[in-house]
Amino acid sequence: MTAGLVVVIWALAGPALAQLFQQAIDQVSSF
Question: What percent of the chain clears pLDDT 70, i.e. is strictly above it?
Answer without folding.
Answer: 100
